[in-house]
Amino acid sequence: MQLKNQLFIVCGASSGFGKAIAESLLHEGARVIAVARGAEKLQAMQQQFPAMESVSADITDPASIELVKQKLAGRDLHGILVNAGGPPAKQTLETTLEDWDNAYKNLLRWKVAITQAFVPLMMEKKYGRVLFIESSSVKQPLENLVLSNSLRVAVVNMAKTLSQEIAGSGVTLNIIAPGSHDTAAINRIYQKKSEQTGIPVGQVREAAIKAIPVGALGTAEDFASLATWLLSPHSRYITGQTFSVDGGMAKGIFG
User: Fold this and answer.
1) Which of 23, 52, 56 shows the shortest CA–CA distance to 39?
2) Model pTM?
3) Band of pLDDT at residue 14, cut at 50, 70 and 90
4) Which of 48, 145, 228, 240 gives the lowest tally of CB atoms within 10 Å of its CB?
């Protein structure tokens, strides 16, 4: 992948997609600044991967971006994985305005801040890769996820707009839109459906898997393979694009 000795910031690196992508980059010989709240999980990863550095922080907190800058310490940055957890599963009429304020903070605001903090550094070097992990809901709204459905679309349009504004800079911005994967994050959706219907969570999960055209949940490792390529020099001619990784669930021709 031509990633040897390149330096990446990986947000949400202690579990799920973030961890799988951090490990994929490290296996390719890249260096990683892993950012996550779980200090113990980060320490365990560092023992396995000496080339990994870590920042234990909540990346949605504005102060955390400054901590990451300090860890970078003026070194050349080659890419960022912009990734954090999602909001609670709710329908529109059961949300509160506080839910919407929190969703703005946790889904959009910090992503604008981290983009503004690090993209100019990469532009100075005329090279960089920025990859956002959002959701397949940006192409096709998902049941019980109105907060995610709404705010993630704003992230995609911010990234698309910036990709056009800096298209000649050598820095690309793309989005991966995951569907159902076998990670902890999917469980909140199954739990919500179970509460609504009275159907046991296991049966809800089984029915959801049957509805996926390929007949299976994705894995974090499946997802990481595409993410690693998009973070590599090989993706130089791709910017402003949103890639669905959803087992064929999106029905539109541009899914």
Assistant:
1) 56
2) 0.94
3) very high
4) 48
